[in-house]
Write a sequence for this structure.
């Protein structure tokens, strides 16, 4: 009795499906969100000077220039003001590296204790008032869509406040992280 040889016609689609599945898994593996925990403990004493009431103010604006040359503004977006402390420098180091910060209850609590926040108006402008003198980090996100593109960017700027003075913060394309 003669046995039929395996047909290469059927072997190719099976091999192609297996290769396609392997490629899909490798591609999806690259899409997993990488996270890193902040390893520096939140120190309330270190943050105390930034929690005090002061006479400084920050006036700012957040926008991005889109590919079609129109502006995407921070309208309605949340703006965070982070003190220049050991905890927040570590937090921002992680974000600048392209990794997300681990979102655990202790981290959320530390962030809430140290960060101030406000909201951009319809023109993308924001302000923080009654601030003590010190070095700060201003952070916000802007997203926009078009027919052929969409983007969601985090923007970050360093700013220093001085008693009785208004400091300006403009966050735009060069401030992307």
């Amino acid at each position: 009795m003669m046995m039929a040889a395996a047909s290469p016609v059927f072997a190719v689609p099976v091999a192609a499906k297996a290769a396609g599945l392997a490629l899909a898994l490798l591609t999806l593996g690259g899409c997993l969100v990488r996270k890193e925990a902040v390893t520096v403990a939140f120190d309330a004493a270190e943050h105390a000077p930034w929690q005090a009431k002061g006479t400084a103010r920050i006036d700012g604006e957040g926008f991005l220039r889109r590919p079609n040359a129109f502006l995407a503004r921070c309208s309605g977006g949340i703006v965070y003001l982070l003190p220049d402390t050991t905890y927040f420098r570590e937090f921002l180091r992680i974000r600048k590296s392209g990794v997300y910060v681990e979102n655990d209850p202790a981290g959320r609590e530390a962030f809430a204790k140290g960060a101030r926040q406000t909201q951009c108006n319809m023109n993308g402008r924001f302000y923080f008032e009654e601030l003590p003198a010190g070095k700060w980090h201003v952070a916000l996100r802007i997203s926009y869509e078009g027919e052929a593109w969409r983007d969601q960017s985090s923007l970050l700027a360093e700013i220093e406040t001085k008693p009785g003075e208004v400091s300006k913060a403009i966050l735009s394309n060069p401030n992307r992280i």
Summary: The longest strand covers residues 134-145.
